Amino acid sequence: MYEAIEKDDDSVTIKNKVFDSHIRALDDTAKVLDEDAFVRAVQALASARCVEFYGTGGSWAIALDARHKFLKIGIKSFASPDSTLQAMSASLLGAGDVVVGISHSGENKEVIEALALARSAGATVIAITSYGKLPIRRVSDIVLFTASKEMAFKSDAVTSRIAELAIIDALCAAVAFSRYEQSFERLKKTREATVSREY
Q: Whole-prediction pTM value?
């Protein structure tokens, strides 16, 4: 189903294959993403006292993007690339807090340990990970699956990032609209706080 990039492919062929792979990843993820789990994740995030996003490596970039988006709509959030800080912060959470762990493999030991700490402290744990029976599921209350098959440079998990970003965007939009007036006011405030930095 997924056309691999070959050594002799020209630039245009590579571009077409990459775009096709991303489109397929989004389509496949939309099909495997459990709607009940998505709704429960939105409800947890919308009512959260604070939200923390955990990820390392490439997943850290997704976590940082998520923090930026949720902060803009007025939800206090935290994200750090340092696994020690993730663990420390997780240990201080409690009921009413939400943690989102992002791991394509679902086997990242540092992320799983931080999620386990957060869950034992009483926080709700949401995992964004690839489809399958993975260790991250054991420490999560809600699991949002992505579906992607890497076609080149597999260790970079490039295609999975597109699916993870789409899930974050969908969550943020659904949360914002579930508390529309509050989100709109927060967006105005965060926009006004940064407008003086633009030309």
A: 0.89
- pLDDT(161) > 60: yes
Give the torsion through C-alpha atoms of 153, 156, 158, 160, to 10 deg.
120
- Distance from C-alpha of 17 to C-alpha of 24, rounded to nearest angstrom: 10
Q: Over the range 58-87, which residues count as b (16 or more CB within 10 Å of their CB) and which as e? A: bbbebbebbbebbbbbbbebbbbeebeebb
Does position 51 have pLDDT exceeding 90, yes or no? yes
When the pLDDT of each residue in the chain is averaged and rounded to a whole number, the result is 89
Q: How big is the chain, counted in residues? A: 199
CATH 3.30.70.600 fits 11-191, yes or no: no
pLDDT in tens, 57-66: 889 999 999 9
139-142: Cβ within 8 A, 24+ apart: 139/101, 139/112, 139/115, 140/101, 140/115, 141/44, 142/37, 142/40, 142/41, 142/44
User: Is pLDDT at 198 greater than 80 in this prediction?
Assistant: no
Going by pLDDT thresholds of 50, 70 and 90, the confidence category of residue 151 is low
The answer to whether 73 touches 184, Cβ cutoff 8 Å, is no
Asked if residues 126 and 100 have their Cβ atoms less than 8 Å apart, the reply is yes
Nearest to 5 by CA among 150, 151, 158, 148: 151
Residue-range domain boundaries for the chain: 11-191
Which residue, 153, 108, 99, 155, is CA-closest to 129?
108
